[in-house]
Amino acid sequence: MVLVESLVLCSSISGLTLAATETTSWPPYAPTDAAIFQLSSDSQFAFYLEETIGLANWGGANTAEVLRIATQIIPHDFESVYEAYYYMAEEVYAIAESIDPQRDPVSAREAYYHASTYYRGADFFLHGNQSDPRLISLWTQQLTAFNKANALLDIPGERFTVKAHSETVGDYEAIGIFYAAYPDKRRGPTPTILVGRGYDSSQEEGYHSQCRQILSRGINCVTYEGPGQPTVRRQQNIGFVADWWSAATPVVDYLTTRPDVDMSKLALAGMSFGGILAPVAASHDHRFSAVIAIEGFYSAQQAFEEQFPVEIVQLFNTSNVTAFDTAMTGIVANSTYPSNFRWIVGYGLWAFDTLSPFDWFTRLGNITMSPRVVQNLPMPVFVGKGQDDVGTEQEPEIAYEMLVTGRPNGKALTYYHHFNTSLGAGEHCSLGAESQLWQAIMGWLSGVWDGWTYANI
Ligand SMILES: *[C@@H]1O[C@H](CO)[C@@H](O)[C@H](O)[C@H]1NC(C)=O
Ligand SMILES: *[C@@H]1O[C@H](CO)[C@@H](O)[C@H](O)[C@H]1NC(C)=O
Ligand SMILES: *[C@@H]1O[C@H](CO)[C@@H](O)[C@H](O)[C@H]1NC(C)=O
Ligand SMILES: *[C@@H]1O[C@H](CO)[C@@H](O)[C@H](O)[C@H]1NC(C)=O
Ligand SMILES: *[C@@H]1O[C@H](CO)[C@@H](O)[C@H](O)[C@H]1NC(C)=O
Ligand SMILES: *[C@@H]1O[C@H](CO)[C@@H](O)[C@H](O)[C@H]1NC(C)=O
């Protein structure tokens, strides 16, 4: 549709300026028929922009800053995402640095948090080239900004590391941040939610999207990362492992040493791919009184297979390593292919610390909520489903069915919640609608915890 627009009238009547536009035909004001208004015609960029703007709900961004970033992003152009986010990150960080935090800690804290988010955004689409030095420098910048913001909280989060051991990567350190709900540890044991991240997102992001919701109800929030997740991958050069309990269990051991944790009310949440990792961890550690899978998930390999071209899947199924690797590597490097496909593979290779797509996809298939995992889950499990989450296909339904039929008392122990597109909550992990997400989870968890009444902080 061609827009023919001309300014025909601009007159001043009693102090009011009226501008009228004559338009013979209007442009369509419908960016797509997507479930959520898209900020880019590139659906992967639109998704990431939505993830970022959602952080504005809880102090991780400002809406106009993200809307401005969106104007600078060119579909299919990964480098343009870097440039748009990096420009904003540097400028907002400079604002933060210009503030005297003694005089105005709130301004400084907010600007540092926003800058941290935008440094992560600058990084997000660069993983196709694992030697890109910006993968390290941007991460250092996001951590620095985040730590400066955190130090300005009333109750700063406490970073911790714990010794861990995986049968595939050997000794390593799992990392985490403990956010106490109350300043005074003498207040005693407090219910606690441990929040695990997924395939790509960081524990820093989790502070805004999950912990703020949790803390506001008087529950301690703990984030953690294991192998393959952003900071551990960079600092220790290790990719995802199938024995995920190796990361979660030492964190729980640490929590037992804290007088402000009520170990009888400890829940484990997993976001996205974490919807697999959380049940896997809990199947080996029954100290969790509840598991929350935000997107319920059986297998990421299965979900991806359903979206890959059939020729590619056939190469994988026939173990044609050379042809599979050549095809996938070519796709990652070729910007004519859909950005989501390129990103999933390019990011996955990095997160699994490999250069072989065949190796990545094989190991991805080894991380599942298998029947054995399900059998060993005696605790209540919450399964979330974002109605419009095309990325996870039917995984939440599959996960629910397995949890109901694959363990004793499964029906009573499993709760399924459908987050609706009509209410804006249908996106992957209900991004940007975390109030609805946590309202549902907390309502359920109160029942699991014998009718627990939440605080109002
Ligand atoms: C990857 O990044 C490195 C370091 O910047 C650069 O030397 C190399 O040419 C890049 N590789 C590709 C394929 O772009
Ligand atoms: C799958 O995971 C198990 C640990 O649970 C490990 O022993 C095995 O080596 C893994 N297999 C592959 C192909 O990664
Ligand atoms: C590949 O293998 C999986 C698992 O055996 C199977 O479900 C799928 O149908 C196969 N796909 C193709 C295209 O061969
Ligand atoms: C692997 O795939 C390529 C391309 O389709 C084909 O030419 C080759 O014969 C296959 N190799 C094997 C061992 O199947
Ligand atoms: C990129 O892929 C397109 C098909 O989508 C193909 O025509 C083109 O030759 C590829 N470019 C490179 C450099 O391989
Ligand atoms: C949400 O979706 C479910 C399943 O489609 C439906 O039963 C329910 O009525 C919807 N709720 C609202 C508030 O739209």
UniProtKB/TrEMBL annotation:
GO biological process: proteolysis
Leader sequence residues: 1-19
InterPro entries per the UniProt record, alphabetical: AB_hydrolase_fold, FrsA_esterase, Peptidase_S9_cat
Keyword set, alphabetical order: Signal
Pfam families (UniProt xref): Peptidase_S9
A single MF term (Gene Ontology): serine-type peptidase activity
Domain Peptidase S9 prolyl oligopeptidase catalytic: 251-305
Protein name as it appears in the record: Peptidase S9 prolyl oligopeptidase catalytic domain-containing protein
